[in-house]
Amino acid sequence: MAAAAPSPRGSAPAGPGPDPAGPAQLQYSLLLEHLVGERRGPRPARALDPAALGGIPAPPKSEEQKLIERVMESCGFKAALACVGGFVLGGAFGVFTAGIDTNVGFDPKDPYRTPTAKEVLKDMGQRGMSYAKNFAIVGAMFSCTECLVESYRGKSDWKNSVVSGCITGGAIGFRAGLKAGALGCGGFAAFSAVIDYYLR
What we know:
The termini are far apart. The chain is built from six helices and no strands. Helix content is about 60%, strand content about 0%. By secondary structure, the protein is mainly alpha-helical.
């Protein structure tokens, strides 16, 4: 009786086993391919959907949400917001400086007369309104100029604040002459650079 031929040494028995192609590709490796792999480059937003990559799915934005975002990112909205903020801040600063000023309410024609509470409050209100208007104008000019410069350059860095500060300071100081305009440009630009440095 002939013996069966032995199977080749080391051959694996036939049957179910792991896929020879290896484990399935992980989800995050898809993202790595688009970032550092051969497919690196701009991809459609749907290709890198967080839900497809195992992340938290984000609902698509509605047209109303997109409209609100465009309005809030517009230069007009930023200028209006800075104007309102400057008005409130200027008014508070004006009332504060008037409160610590010992000459508030005094009549220069009769300096020995003690002012009444109504006269003091009236003087404080006038100074607060004056400061509020000035701060509102400066805030709106600076914010609008910075937004326009940023839109023109396509970058968001410290140079936008410096350029917008120079334009705003120069425009305010130019009413008093060329020298005052140059000093205002330099002063506002330096102040903007310092503030932007500490904020960033």
